[in-house]
Amino acid sequence: MSEPVLLDSNTHKNTRVLGDARTVVGPVSRNCSVITQEFQRLASHFPVLLTKNEDTGQFACVALFGFDPGENLFVEKDRWQVGYVPLNIRRHPFMIGAQTTPAGEEEHVMLIDMQSERISEQDGEALFNDRGFPTPFTENMTSVLKTLKDGFVETQDFIQALLEQEMIVPANFEIQFRNGERREINGLYTISQDALDALTPEQVVAMHRSGHLQAAYMMIASLGQMEQLIERKNQRLGA
Fold this sequence. Notes:
Blueprint: E1 5-6, E2 16-17, E3 31-33, H1 39-42, E4 48-52, E5 59-64, E6 75-76, E7 79-80, H2 87-90, E8 94-100, E9 106-112, E10 119-120, E11 125-126, H3 136-164, E12 168-170, E13 173-176, E14 182-185, E15 188-191, H4 193-197, H5 201-210, H6 212-222, H7 226-238
Antiparallel strand pairs: 1-9, 2-10, 2-11, 3-5, 4-5, 4-15, 6-7, 8-9, 12-15, 13-14
């Protein structure tokens, strides 16, 4: 179990990060959480769906990478083989944390997982320069984390709007691959096209102004990537 620590120019002056955004280190997953700001890019490569936490009932938006646990059909030889890597993957080994200031206010801080296999003292991207200032690499990662922090808030607003309009429906898939293997994919959700079409003009305008309408159409359009995902699986099974 990793224990992320506060990123500090003194403590981590010699710390480096191996690889780049396309480098895969450690275990892979068949999906990851994504934010609405990414939907347009994501929809060109992955099915974008919703999952539901059975304990809390809370929904999250995810990009689907495979059909079996721990399967990522977009990774070969420890490299992502796709045009866009989701921000929640690219942020590793960094994450956002929170701490209380002396004035009693909460502020967000940048944490680093020092147990990550991407951490090195010899090779890779330096985090700070000789003067102790963040390098362009670190500044870019800071920007990624801020986008994710703001994006997850906006994404929850999007999901809440879908719930209020009763637009979330189960998305169950029964798939047969070319070698005869079958999969039943359950526990995923998507947006009802019928519910979207039934919106009143006033509701359409409200969703458009909030940016939720485009996100909804992007999510529905991304389901077209299921065929490409199935074909990737067929190629793996054939190999």
